Automatic annotation (TrEMBL):
Lineage of source species: Bacteria, Pseudomonadati, Bacteroidota, Flavobacteriia, Flavobacteriales
The name this protein goes by in its record: Dihydroorotase
The keyword Metal-binding belongs to this UniProt entry's keyword annotation: yes
Domain Amidohydrolase-related: 54-429
Keywords assigned by UniProt, alphabetized: Hydrolase, Metal-binding
GO terms, molecular function: dihydroorotase activity
Species whose genome carries this gene: Thalassobellus suaedae
Length: 448
């Protein structure tokens, strides 16, 4: 189906630190023109009057687990990418700990093949490192994949990279962005054993941040950063959860020049350990949601640019799985549909500006991973765009949750802001809670 020419009029455009009112013309897959006022040249142009609304670049989520292949009872690329589109996330980077794991070039290409047929959003994948797949890592074309993911803690299968010699070899031998999950396994095992001896299997969930402690996070993060400095590797530390770790990062240079970068996830900015009593295992994540003080320090580092990116770590599990006792309930939760509305709620509360949200969720992932022609509202860029009504409240309920797992840690929360339209590669794919039948998702390309 040929894409319509679309003209968005009277909209507040949020881009590169400023908000200005104007019109945007979309032709084919791209933004053709941005101007104060643009006239429709023919009757074929689809005109959208967006007066009072805000136009943002589509968000780029650099850390999701969509569970395909192998774990599709929880989620799949189709279901979760559809939820992402409804949440204003137009591009995602998915993690390698599926079944089988994405630790060979062959398995990587199989995932690209699935996404090419079923994804609602633009897609790329991380290649997974292990203690014994350095040869495969060296075969990966850095222009065709988002980067390399290493689990330095909390891995599934054989993905824990715990051999210091191998780790150093990997850091020395790739130019790709190395994204890491940092929690020290030995510290966690010791803490877990102590709690198991005290409580048995039914450990109170509020002990989670004591088991997966600040010490476990800091020890692992600081070691990874030390190794990156020693080897010159390009390191990105996923999902910071402690205030202490923020001291390891700098805001003394622009993001494009940083060799060591950091990310924070929506749940670590929203929840604290005071929420465990009400939410229980539904906010059990790795790394753990920690104290209010940690949350405050994460906010501070995000706003002063020591933390570069906001992501979701979207990791769904079934209700049945989550309803187990602590030792059996898996960590992780679904977030892609609600991440942008949650951050816009923080705007309403005076915690962050809309311009800063766009910087951390759109511009910076594009800069960090060198994503080609996305993450900005610019002429010549792909028209991945999101229209937001800042004053159109809605409540997260079972019947409007789009995740395959059917639940959300935000259930019962009322958000003031609503995503009304999502454009993907020039096509209007989502409008007022309805999806179009246009499949316009593309594989992300990288300007490396």
């Amino acid at each position: 189906m040929k894409k319509k020419t679309i003209l968005i009029k009277n909209v507040n455009i949020v881009n590169e630190g400023s908000i200005f009112n104007g019109d945007i013309l979309i032709e084919g897959e791209y933004i053709k023109e941005i101007n104060d006022s643009i006239s429709a040249k023919s009757a074929d142009v689809h005109v959208i009057d967006a007066e009072g609304k805000y136009l943002l670049p589509g968000a780029i989520d650099d850390q999701v687990h969509f569970r395909e292949p192998g774990l599709t009872h929880k989620a799949n690329i189709e279901s979760e990418s559809r939820a992402a589109i409804a949440g204003g996330i137009t591009s995602f980077i998915e993690m390698p700990n599926t079944n089988p794991q994405t630790t060979t070039v062959e398995k990587l290409e199989e995932k690209f093949e699935i996404a090419s047929k079923t994804s609602f959003a633009n897609y790329s994948f991380m290649f997974g490192g292990t203690n014994d797949n350095l040869e495969e890592i060296l075969k990966v074309d850095p222009k065709s994949v988002a980067g390399l993911k290493l689990f330095l803690g909390s891995s599934t299968g054989n993905m824990l990279v715990d051999d210091p010699e191998i780790l150093e070899k990997i850091f020395k031998s790739t130019n790709m962005v190395i994204s890491v999950h940092c929690e020290d396994e030995a510290t966690i095992k010791k803490n877990f054993q102590e709690h198991l001896e005290t409580y048995g299997d039914d450990i109170p969930v509020k002990c989670h941040p004591i088991i997966r402690s600040e010490e476990a996070c800091y020890l692992s993060s600081s070691k990874a950063i030390e190794l990156a400095k020693k080897t010159g590797a390009r390191l990105h530390v996923f999902h910071l959860s402690t205030g202490k770790e923020t001291s390891l990062f700098t805001n003394k240079m622009p993001l494009k020049d940083k060799k060591i970068t950091a990310e924070v996830c929506v749940h670590h900015l929203w929840f604290s350990d005071k929420d465990y009593d009400e939410k229980g295992t539904f906010i059990k994540w790795n790394p753990a949601v920690k104290t209010e003080k940690d949350r405050d320090q994460l906010w501070k580092a995000l706003l002063d640019d020591r933390i570069d990116v906001i992501a979701t770590d979207h990791a769904p599990h079934t209700l049945e799985e989550k309803n187990n006792v602590y030792t059996s309930a898996p960590s992780g939760g679904p977030l892609v549909q609600h991440a942008l509305p949650a951050m816009l709620e923080m705007f309403h509360r005076g915690k962050i500006s809309i311009e800063k949200i766009v910087e951390k969720m759109c511009h910076n992932p594009a800069i960090l991973f060198q994503v080609e022609k996305r993450g900005y509202v610019k002429e010549g860029y792909f028209a991945d765009l999101v229209l937001v009504d800042l004053n159109n409240p809605w409540t997260v309920k079972k019947d409007n949750i789009l995740y395959k797992c059917g639940w959300s840690p935000f259930e019962g929360t009322t958000f003031k802001s609503r995503i009304t339209h999502t454009f993907l590669n020039g096509a209007l794919v989502y409008q007022n809670a309805k999806f179009s039948d246009i499949k316009s998702a593309k594989r992300l390309t990288f300007n490396r």
